[in-house]
C-alpha cells in the first residue's frame, strides 16, 4: 500500500396437486349395498311401512358418509395446494446463481421471508463510528472503521449522510470485499484545504484510492469537493490568460478519486468538483460503468481532467456532464472497448485519446466509440495525440454524431504532440489507423483550422474516413485551409470546409515498419 500511495504500483422435485391424483388416493370408494338382495326374511304387508322407513334411514346414512368423505378429500386437496403455493413462493425469491445453505434448524411455518428483513442492518453510517462532519474535524478514522464493517458483509453500504461536511486525509480503501459493496455520499466529502493543510506524511499523488475492489458502486446525492483552488495557484502550474505564466518547481497535485486494479465498478449520480488535478481516474481496471456523473471545475483550472482511464478495458461512460480545465475524458495507453455516449463536454479540452508514446514508450489503444456527444466552448473537439518516438498503435476509433459549439481544433490528429517547443524529431511513432469521423457538425473558433491531421513522416495515418462533416465558423469567414500531412483516407461525402489533402491508398513506408504492432 505504501508504494501504491506513492504511485509505484503500476428443481426438479414436484409436489403433486390433489386435483391430478387418482380417485383412489383422494377419497375412499363407497359402494352402495343392495339391501333388497341381502334380506332373506319374509315381510308381511303389515311390516312394509317399517321396511320403507328402515330403507330411508339407511339411504340417509349412506349420503352422510359420502358427504363426509368428499369433505375430507377437499380438505386434503386444499392442504397440498397450499404447500405447493408456499413452495413456489420461496422458489421465486431465490437469487440467480445463489445456493443457500441448509438452516441449522427447521424454521416454523410463520417465519418471515429473508427478503423482508430490515435492509439497514447492512448500512454503516460514518456518524455512528464517530464522524463529526463539521467541515474541519478529521473524520478519516471513522470512515476507515465504517469501511472495514461494510467491506466484510455482502451488500454493505458505507454511508456519508446528508447535511454533513466530512473531511478526510489521503486514504486507501482496500479490498478484497464481499460482493455488492456501496460507497454512498449524500453529504459533502472533501480533503484538507490546499497544500499548506495537507499532512506532510501523506501522498500528494492521490487523495482517495479504491484498491483491489471487485464489485463496488460509488453513488449518492452529495458532492465530492476537491478544494483545488490553492493547488491551481502553485507557481509551477500552467497559467493561462492575459497574465499567465509558468515557473519551474515541484508541481505534484493529488488526483481526487482513483480506482486501482479493480473490476466491476459502477459510478452513478455523484457530483465531483474542483479537483486539484484529475477528478476521477481508473488505472488497471476492468468492467467500468459510469452514468449520470457530474464533474465541474473552472475553465482555467489546470490539469483537471474529468475522467481519465489507462490500462483499463470494457468501459461505458453515459449520460454525464463534464465542465473543467482540461480533457473531459482522456484515454491513455492500454485501453480498449470504451464506449462514450450522451455526454456534454465543455468548457475544457474535449475528448482525447492520449497522449501516447511519451519517452519512447509502447502504447496500444483500440476499439473506442464516441457517439451522441456535445462539445462546447472548448480548446479541442475530438483529439488523438501522440509523441514522436513512441511505438504501438491507436486503431478502430469511431467519432459519430458530435455537435460542436464554438470549438477550436474540432477534429485533430497530432503525431507531433509536445508540451514545449524543444521536442526533437524522431523517426518512430504510434501508428494511427481505422479512424472514422461521421456526422460531425456545428461551429468552430476561427483562431485555428477546424480540421488538423499531422501524421508522422515514417508512420503515416491510414484508413481515415470522413462522412457528413459540416463545420462553420462561430463568427467571421469560413476557414478553408484544413491541415493534412501524410494522412491517408477517403471522404464518403463532401465536407465543409472542403478537404482535398487526404491521400489515397496505403503508403509504401508503412510495410517496412514493425514498431506499431500491439
Automatic annotation (TrEMBL):
Lineage, highest ranks first: Eukaryota, Viridiplantae, Streptophyta, Embryophyta, Tracheophyta
Protein's UniProt keywords contain Hydrolase: yes
Originating species: Thalictrum thalictroides
Compartments reported by the entry: Secreted, Cell wall
SUPFAM superfamilies: Pectin lyase-like (SSF51126)
Active site: 349
Any one GO molecular function term: polygalacturonase activity
Coiled coil location: none
Keywords: Cell wall, Cell wall biogenesis/degradation, Glycosidase, Hydrolase, Secreted
Family: Belongs to the glycosyl hydrolase 28 family.
Domain of life: Eukaryota
Protein name (record): Polygalacturonase
GO biological process, one term: cell wall organization
Amino acid at each position: 500500500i505504501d508504494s501504491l500511495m506513492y504511485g509505484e504500483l503500476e428443481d426438479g422435485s414436484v409436489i403433486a396437486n390433489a386435483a391430478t391424483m387418482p380417485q383412489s388416493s383422494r377419497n375412499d370408494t363407497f359402494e352402495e349395498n343392495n339391501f333388497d338382495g341381502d334380506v332373506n326374511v319374509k315381510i308381511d304387508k303389515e311390516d312394509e311401512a317399517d321396511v320403507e322407513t328402515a330403507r330411508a334411514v339407511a339411504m340417509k346414512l349412506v349420503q352422510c358418509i359420502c358427504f363426509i368423505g368428499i369433505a375430507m378429500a377437499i380438505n386434503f386437496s386444499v392442504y397440498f395446494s397450499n404447500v405447493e403455493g408456499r413452495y413456489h413462493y420461496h422458489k421465486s425469491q431465490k437469487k440467480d446463481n445463489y445456493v443457500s445453505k441448509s438452516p441449522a434448524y427447521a424454521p416454523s411455518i410463520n417465519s418471515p421471508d429473508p427478503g423482508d428483513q430490515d435492509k439497514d442492518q447492512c448500512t454503516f453510517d460514518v456518524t455512528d463510528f464517530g464522524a463529526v462532519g463539521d467541515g474541519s474535524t478529521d473524520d478519516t478514522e471513522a470512515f476507515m472503521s465504517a469501511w472495514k464493517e461494510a467491506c466484510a458483509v455482502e451488500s454493505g453500504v458505507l454511508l456519508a449522510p446528508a447535511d454533513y461536511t466530512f473531511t478526510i486525509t489521503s486514504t486507501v480503501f482496500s479490498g478484497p470485499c464481499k460482493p455488492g459493496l456501496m460507497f454512498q455520499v449524500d453529504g459533502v466529502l472533501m480533503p484538507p484545504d490546499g497544500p499548506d493543510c495537507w499532512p506532510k506524511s501523506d501522498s500528494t499523488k492521490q487523495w482517495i484510492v479504491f484498491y483491489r475492489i471487485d464489485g463496488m458502486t460509488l453513488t449518492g446525492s452529495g458532492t465530492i469537493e476537491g478544494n483545488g483552488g490553492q493547488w491551481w495557484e502553485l507557481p509551477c502550474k500552467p497559467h493561462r490568460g492575459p497574465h499567465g505564466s509558468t515557473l519551474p518547481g515541484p508541481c505534484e497535485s493529488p488526483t481526487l478519486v482513483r480506482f486501482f486494479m479493480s473490476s466491476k465498478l459502477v459510478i452513478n449520480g455523484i457530483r465531483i468538483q474542483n479537483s486539484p488535478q484529475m477528478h476521477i481516474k481508473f488505472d488497471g481496471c476492468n468492467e467500468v460503468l459510469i452514468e449520470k456523473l457530474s464533474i465541474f471545475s473552472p475553465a482555467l483550472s489546470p490539469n483537471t481532467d474529468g475522467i481519465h482511464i489507462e490500462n483499463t478495458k470494457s468501459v461505458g461512460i453515459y449520460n454525464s456532464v463534464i465542465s473543467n480545465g482540461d480533457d473531459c475524458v482522456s484515454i491513455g495507453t492500454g485501453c480498449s472497448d470504451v464506449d462514450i455516449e450522451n455526454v456534454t463536454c465543455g468548457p475544457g479540452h474535449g475528448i482525447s485519446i492520449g497522449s501516447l508514446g511519451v519517452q519512447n514508450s509502447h502504447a496500444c489503444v483500440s476499439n473506442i466509440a464516441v457517439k451522441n456527444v456535445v462539445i462546447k466552448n472548448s480548446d479541442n473537439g475530438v483529439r488523438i495525440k501522440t509523441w514522436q518516438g513512441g511505438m504501438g498503435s491507436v486503431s478502430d476509433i469511431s467519432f459519430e454524431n458530435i455537435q460542436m459549439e464554438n470549438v477550436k481544433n474540432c477534429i485533430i490528429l497530432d503525431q507531433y504532440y509536445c508540451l514545449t517547443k524543444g521536442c526533437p524529431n524522431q523517426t518512430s511513432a504510434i501508428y494511427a489507423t481505422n479512424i472514422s469521423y461521421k456526422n460531425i457538425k456545428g461551429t468552430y473558433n476561427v483562431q485555428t483550422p477546424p480540421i488538423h491531421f499531422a501524421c508522422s513522416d515514417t508512420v503515416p495515418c491510414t484508413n481515415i474516413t470522413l462522412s457528413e462533416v459540416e463545420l462553420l465558423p462561430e463568427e467571421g469567414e469560413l476557414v478553408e485551409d484544413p491541415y493534412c500531412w501524410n494522412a491517408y483516407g477517403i471522404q464518403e461525402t463532401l465536407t465543409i470546409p472542403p478537404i482535398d489533402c487526404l491521400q489515397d491508398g496505403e503508403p509504401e513506408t508503412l510495410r517496412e515498419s514493425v514498431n506499431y504492432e500491439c
